[in-house]
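We close this part of the discussion by returning to an individual protein. Part of our work consisted of pairing the sequence of a single chain with a tokenised description of its backbone. No coordinates are needed to read the tokens, only the vocabulary itself. The amino acid sequence and the backbone structure tokens for this protein are reproduced below:
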Amino acid sequence: MKPLFKLTEFDSKRNTTIIRIEEPEFQNIDFYFNTIKPAKEPNEDGTYTISFEYETINENENIEATFDDEKKKKFETVLGNILNSILEENLLEINSKESNEIRTQNT
């Protein structure tokens, strides 16, 4: 199931796009990703782990400090799902553009 979120606006002060969570439990929490790092080596199943850092902003700044361990883990899972969704969408877009360029070159 695709996570519920929307890209809100580009924040020139932070030089990033702000993401608003629309999942019911964390609805209207705004955040952005600071650092995103893929693992250097694959997992045993061939997948890669991606670590990330994030900041919550506006009236939700540091809201995760109010979460118990279970809720914080759930929150970070939602953020991870959002990151995966954004990465997948961008990879599909890149692949589509590359396919179109190859077709154009071959005609």
Remarks:
- The first strand starts at residue 5 and ends at 11.
